[in-house]
Amino acid sequence: MTSPSTSTADSDSDASGRSRRAVLATAGTAIAGALAGCSALGGGTTPSSFADGDWHSFGNAPGNQNHVAGGAPEPTDHAVLASANFPYAPPVVHDDVVYFATERTVHAVAVDGTDAWATPVAAGTDERRWVSGTPAIDPDHGRLYVPTRVVPRSDGPDPAPAYVTAFALDDGDPTWTTRVGDGRTYGVTVDVRDVYVRSATACVRLGPDGSEHWRTPMEPLEYDEYRLGDDFATQVAPAVENTGVYVPDRNALVKLEPGTGDERWRVDAKTPHAAPVLDDGGVVQTGWQGVVATDRYGDVRWRRDLRSLAAAAVDDTDVYVAGSDLHEIDGATGETNWQTRLSSGELATAAPVVTDESVVVDDDHPVAYRRNADGLLAPDRERWSYTQPHTSTYASPVIAAGKLFAVGPAGLHAFEHATDT
To answer: Is residue 368 part of a domain?
Structure first.
């Protein structure tokens, strides 16, 4: 195991476009820095530890907020927990066990590296099933829900089915499989006891036994005019709350009635290709041709001409969007508080993860930025950059069980911060 890391200064674009809130924060930070002497020149305070809890689904909540309490200390070590060939979906974590679905297999690995079980997603069938999205955990029923697709043979099936399969958390035995549409399954969300699914052709609500409550037709998230297929739409989980189920449709953000699946409203969205995210003011939907934020009644709060294939991350009124730049956006006004250049470009589908103090992105390797770095004596925006190993920009990082998890071409990596170093 190795621990290479670097720290760099702010990008040239880092301080542009501050909102009034950010300007006031700048003044307050400068005053606080002056009162504290020159302590900020030493690089700021030590961040809190990685959160030592669970991460049960994409976005770490039914609202897909991609937020976790705690901090993002600089890693001192990393290890490969599970080997895989170019996986495209992040893991989920429960009780210090990491569940990682990739290619044709679901893996359960303890955070210390001990293998718990591994089960083929096509177990008991002759279909060529592949993992197609991020799993979700239902701890109350002891199940792991995995999105899958079927790779058809020369004689079919046509259309190829999209499934959700439930596996037992303790031993990996498949308990049920339900067809949820055609093509592929983009993502799943567990809320209270039920499972909400977005496939290429539908949004479906399932019970914990796999029974179907309702199904609402949807269009695939494919845009031929931009040569944008849905091969990397592996993190498109519905955002769910008591009053609504929010899903992207082709060029639209849609709110469905949770009990019936009936459409409540539909708002124009430019090429959405990622999960919607609930924030304090309503819903944020990113897209290849723009970002839109609405309230819960479907009224548009703001729009931004930002290109992003990744879901947003939110904490209170701060919204983080990753594309060619990482933007912190004021959720009330839509104005950029600060931004910094990313090297991964606009095609990345890995969402940021925001902690109490930092925002972590996968920029071909994990990088952490300070949320507050304003003021004359403030530290650099970049908190740390861990340059080895190479990780993927197609699967979002996860913080759980006291570690940072990131997916790379070789498989699933776990990063830790040793407190005695």
So the answer is: yes
- Beta carbons of 398 and 405 less than 8 angstroms apart: yes
Residues 6+ apart with CB under 8 A from 322: 308, 310, 342, 348, 350, 351, 352, 361
Residue 211 CB coordination number (10 Å): 11
Nearest to 314 by CA among 74, 125, 60: 60
- Domain of 74, in residue numbers: 20-416
Cα angle value 19/372/413 (rounded, 5°): 120
Answer whether 86's CB lies under 8 Å from 118's CB: no
> pTM for this structure?
0.88
Burial of 281 (C-beta count, 10 Å sphere; 0-12/13-18/19+): middle
Q: Is residue 14 part of a domain?
A: no
The 10s digit of each residue's pLDDT in 168-186 is 999 999 999 999 999 999 9
Structure confidence by residue, pLDDT tens digits, 47-104: 899 999 999 999 999 999 999 999 999 999 999 999 888 788 999 999 999 999 999 9
Task: Give CA–CA dist 170/108, Å, rounded.
Answer: 9
